Every structure is written in C-alpha cells, then in structure tokens.
C-alpha cells in the first residue's frame, strides 16, 4: 500500500467510528458532518477492501478486520499526536460532546441527580446519556462495544481490558413488610433462616452475599423468589411475607419505604462495593479522564 495515498483524516474517522459504532455520533465526535463521515467510511472501505463496519440490530458492528485494525490505528494516532506535541486538551466549560454512562440500580438512584447537577454547572455543553444494566457481564459488553464510556457496578472480576476503581460501599440491612407479625424474630438467626426470602440476583444465581455469610455458620435459608432488578425488591417485600437483605440506601430511597420495617441482620454480611469501570482503550483520553474524575467527585459526596 502506498502511504502517500492515505489521508490521515481517514484514520481519525476510523477511530471515531470504532468508538461510537454510529455514523452520526462519530461525526459529532470529531466535528464533521454526517455526510462527510459517511464519505470517509466509503473511502476507508475502498482503501482496505473490507466493509469494516456493517449494520446490525445494535448499530454498526465491526468486521474481524476492523477489530484487528482498531488497536494499532489508535496507537498510531496517539504517537502522531505526541510527536507533534498536539495531544488534545479538554475544556469542559467550552466542549460540546456527548458522554455515556451505564449504572446499576443503586448507583443510579444515588448518583444520577448530583452528577447531572455537577455537569450542568461545570460542563454546560456536554450532554450526558445514562442507561441501566443489571448483570455485570452486560456492563463489560457495553464497554467492549463502545456503547458507553464508563459504567458503575460491582467489580468486573479478572478482565484485564476493563479498568476499575472503588467508588463507594453500602452495608446491607434486612427488610420486611411493615405489618409483618413479630418482626423481631428476623433479628434472631433461627427466625431469619426459617423465613421465606427474596433474593436480588442480576446474574440469576441462587447464592448471594447473605448465603455466603450463612454458609460460614453452617446455616442456609430458603429463597422463595429472586429478581434481577434491585429496585423491585422493596415493593415485593412490602406486599408479601418475604424478607430480603438490601443495601441501606436502596431501602432509604425507595418509594415503598413507609411500608417496610428495617431490621439489623442477625449475620455479619460484607458490604457491597460499587466500582467505576472503563475500557483500557479510553484510559488516556482527556475527555474521558475528565468524565471519570467528575463521577468520582460526585460519588465522594454521597
């Protein structure tokens, strides 16, 4: 391939397309029109002899060849920027772009309002798109696909490409319906274990933090029902004879709080830690770094 025929702007367009998986958003990312980005994609296809990105039910999906190109192209662009001394700066006060964040139920309840308020004040031209997820595996897929810039949930486990840092932790409390008979019996280990339990399990497992704690004591409980979404649990418990263990802030912020009795669990359960997650490929991007710092700052005040 004759390098003299390559327009470096095409590599910038390719990098944006791979990050956004959407022609219009990619165009907005680098400050060109949608028709210009479509034309750049057409030129890239002719240059490489590959479709690179094809339509799917979730936007544009990269071909295997495009996936192979993504890392070296991004690295080359970074080296060029460093060599020229023009590594992009990010000014939140004047920038106009969109950032995307996925959050599990509890972080959304606790962080959405203060984060939006902070961004309206500090970055009035930056648009924020929030979306939800339940399963930690969904967060990894969203980050891998470039559909979000960051996510807040539990630890991703051993995923080298997914970077993370702890944001905050939450202690568990027990809940039962406010009109339940003899709620005090749930603070006793025997009474707690004999009750019917509701489990919140985004991954669909039948074993949670409470079960792990009970197992160390040689005890177990009956899980009568489980749900994937944490915000459903308070309403279900308020209208049934089931008990559940939830993070304290999820209970406090629930619209069903007045219909619940909160009790101290009779077993020591480790608190749940929520992490900020992001993909390694965006680690050094100035705008992404600012966005992550804004999330950390909002979380530090809760």
Q: DSSP strand (E) fraction?
A: 15-25%
Kindly report the spatial arrangement of strands forming the biggest sheet.
Answer: 4-3-5-12-6
What integer is the average pLDDT?
Answer: 89
DSSP strand tally? 12
The portion of residues assigned to helices is 40-55%
Secondary structure tally, helices: 11
Radius of gyration: 24 Å
Look up the CATH topology of the largest domain.
D-Maltodextrin-Binding Protein, domain 2
CATH superfamily of the largest domain: Periplasmic binding protein-like II
Distance between the termini: 55 Å
| Poorly predicted sequence stretches spanning 5 or more consecutive residues | none
Q: Could you say which overall geometry the principal axes of the C-alpha atoms support?
A: elongated
CATH class of the largest domain reads: Alpha Beta
The arrangement of helices and strands along the chain is HHHEEHEHEHEEEHEHEHEHEEH
CATH architecture of the largest domain: 3-Layer(aba) Sandwich
Q: Structural class, from secondary structure content?
A: alpha/beta
What does this structure look like?
This protein folds into three domains: 3-84, Arc Repressor Mutant, subunit A; 98-170 and 273-300, D-Maltodextrin-Binding Protein, domain 2 (3-Layer(aba) Sandwich); 172-270, 3-Layer(aba) Sandwich (D-Maltodextrin-Binding Protein, domain 2). The longest helix is centred in the N-terminal third of the chain and has 21 residues, at 64-84. By secondary structure, it is an alpha/beta fold. Strand 8, helix 8 (209-215) and strand 9 form a beta-alpha-beta unit. The chain contains eleven helices and twelve strands.
